[in-house]
Each structure stands twice: as structure tokens, then as C-alpha cells.
Amino acid sequence: KEQNTGQTNLPKLHSSKTLHPVIIPLVFVGALCIVSCFRKPYSPSSNNDNPTMRWDVAKKASTFDWNFCAETACLKQVSLFMEGLAGFENKASGVELVPRLATHWQFLSPTQIVFKLRRQVLWSDGTTLQSVHFVNAWKRVLQNTRLSPYAEALFAIHGAREFSRGEIPFSKVGIRTPDPWTIFIRLAQPEPGFPAIFAHPVTWPMRHADRHKAAFPVVLGAFLPKNRNPETQTRFLPNPDYYRGRLRLRELTLTEIPDASLRILRFLNGESDQADDLDAAHTQHLRKDARLIARTADRFVALVLNTRGAAFRSLRRRKRFLSAVDVNEMRTLFRWPSQSALFSFPLLLPPEKFNSLTSTATYARTLTLHPGSLALGKEVAENLRMQWEQKLAAHISIDNKGKPDMQLLELQLDPYRIAWTIRSLRQQVSFASGSVIPPFEGDTSVKAAVEWFQNFGRSAQEVVLPLFARTEFAFTGDAFSEIKPVIGGTWDVSALLAP
Prior knowledge:
By secondary structure, this protein is an alpha+beta fold. It has 3 domains: 25-60 and 219-341 and 474-497, Periplasmic binding protein-like II (D-Maltodextrin-Binding Protein, domain 2); 86-203, Dipeptide-binding Protein, domain 1, CATH 3.90.76.10; 351-454, Ribosomal Protein S8, Chain: A, domain 1, CATH 3.30.1370. Helix content is 22%, strand content 18%. It has 11 helices and 17 strands. A 6-stranded mixed β-sheet has the order 1-12-2-11-10-9, with helices on one face. Helix 9 crosses helix 10 (446-454). It starts with 34 loop residues before the first strand and ends with a helix.
């Protein structure tokens, strides 16, 4: 089970690993809780070298069409079999944006970026991944923006918004593919955090431009989705052609169990290996169970193991194992969906509030956060308040009278204060992204400041603030990493992977 603690320091605005100016809906998904257990002893002659992993979830994905994936269940589950140009990885220094289907990317100028693709990536039908598969997917999304709340992530591309409205042909959108392994993108405005949107399914490639009738699509990720039988269960098999190497699992079975108590009961009875989407009450129940042992880590509450497993019957072995295993390596080893990322978003105030840019009046706005059933919602809100007051020199108040799973924050901000803070914020963005953001004319112009911020925002109907909050996402394509044993000890990885 993995869950951020209330004491974990959220990233600062100047962190290059968390700057993410576009995908704000991601911050509203709930926190992920995963538990795993070991049961049968390893036998060299058995078929347990590649075990079956049984994963219970609260809800199955309503669609496997990743470009139009919206709900939390879909975001997690499509990541089992697809990925994009970039992805997030948990590293010792924090969450880092890393290449996935791209070998690398480079800003040629503040508004021009080039992506180079991996050449060894194969789709499940044997076709080699090419740049046109990304372009087809993006065109499809822009033609159907009403089907995806995340389509606006692509509006940062020059002409994308106009194409979605039918005002220009797609040939005038700032996307070029000079060869099958290269994608040139021209942005409407400088967006140093732009590559981060390619971690989201809305930007992932599509083998066929129109596959809405297909029950299971052509994919290229770590798993291949197979049949759904019964309706509540989905089987996934390892992708033998996965570009990062075949998984050490024979099969992953995903079962929909809406009742959290039943998911825990199935886990404790050995009917499942992972129990997902557990609230705080059920999590505490597991931590107190005498049959389970837990180790507190810096960034995770605990790693929970089932002591009935043959590999962990000895207390000495359990202690040695827990002292030797790095939590991130365990997650990588078992391909657990990762709880990643804390994102930041620049300030956006709607233009109707600036009809008179010379006005000295302050503007009170209310922003509603949706941490869902997150147990640490109050702590997150308080952390936001402190960060915003420090970064924006603004007064922030927290109202706890709303629903238990919501925090209301009121921001009172003078437009002149935007101009006062923008210079330092621009410098931070330039430093974090490695791309110099040129100063706008005068650098103290309120109008220029507002326009600069709006280039990073979504709709003019809402307020988007520098926001830091947990999000849940399933990236299962991390490179395989073996467990490092303690000095004097030897661990059989195959035995550890046995059910």
C-alpha cells in the first residue's frame, strides 16, 4: 500500500520536476492505495516463475479508448497497456518527467520543440510505431473536443484551437513530421512545461484514427488486454514485444469489486494480490492486522506484506527483507501502478476582471478543490494556503463548512500585484524549464502580465492558481530493477515473485 503522508513536503513552484501548466484535471483524482501479498513457496519445477497477479479495483474502466479517457478508473487501467511520448517517474529527488516513446526532446526556441521517437517500438499487430500515429490521434482529439475534458491540453499548439473550431485546415496546425521518427511542434506562445502533457492519455498515439467499434484496441504497452469474462473481470497478458522488456508476470487479472470491505476480505483470504481504492478507515484496518507487517518510508505510509507467505515466515527474514528493499524498486519489480506527481499551474485570472487595467480594486474569487475521499484533504489545503500566500503575497482563507471532501479557498488579489510578482515567477519558470522566457515589453505592464499568464491557462471562465496536490496515475512501464539484497544475504528474485 502506498499513500503520501500528511507531513510530506509538497514541491515548490521552482521545481523542474513538477512544473505542469496544462493538465489541471489531474490534480483532482483521489490517492491510490495498493497492497500486495505473497503466498506459495517457490519451486524450480513449478510454473510460478511468472505468477498471475490478481488486482481488485472499485470500478472498471468504462472505455479503453485512451484519447477520450476521463474517469479515474480509466486513467489507471489504460496505463497498463499504453503510454505516450513522456511519463512521470518517482525518483529519489522527486517526481521527474522522463522520455517514454520518445528518446528525447529539445526546445529549438521558446515556441519550437522537436521529439525524436524510439525506433524499436511495436504495436500489438506488429506495426512499427511512427510519428503519423501521434498526429492521427491528436487530429482525432481536436475534431472531437466535446468527448474529452482534456482536449484543451493540445490548444497550446499553434492553430490547434482554431482547427477544433473548424476555422482552419489541419495543415495549418503547428505540427510537422519530416520523417517517421521526428515530430516538430510549434507552440502558440512559450510554454516551458509543455512536454508534460504527453504523459496524459489524451496525447497518446493511436494505431487507427477511428477504432471506436473495437472492444480491445491495438496497443503497445506492458500488457495486452484480452477478454472480459465475466463482465466485471478483465485479463491482461504480458506484451512479448514491449520495448522495455517483457514483464515477469504470466497474467494480470483485474476484477471489479465495488465494496471496499469485500476487497479487503478477498485480499486477506488470498483471493487477490492487490486491493485498490481503499479509504483511510480500511487502510488503518490493514495496518493493525496482526498477520501483516508494515514498514514506514519517507514518501509512503507503508509497504504491507502478507506474513503467511512462505518467503516471510521467519521474522529474521522479514526484517532483513524490509531493511534491504527500496520501496521504489519494489514498485518497479512488481509493476505496481504508481502514485505519482505533484503538479503546479500558473495563475490565470479571467479577462473580464480586467476591463479597467488601471483600477486598484481587489478581486475576490472562490476556488473549489476536489480532493475526493482523500483523508489528508485538510493538510493538503493548508499546504496550498501557505504556498500561495508565500508565492503570491495574497490572502488565502480556507472554509471547512462545505462537503467533507471539499475545501473552499478564497483568493483576494490585486491585478497590480500580478505585475509585481511576475518577474520573479518568470525567472523561476525559465530556470526550472531550462528554456529562457523572454521578458515582455516593460515587464511591469499589468496587461502584458495578464496575457502572459493566460497563455498557460485553460478557459477564461475559471481561475487557475499555482496548485500543488496529489494525483493518481498508473504508469507501469518503468524499467525492471532487481531487489538489492543486504550484505551476506542472497535473494532469489523468482521466489519473491511467486504468488
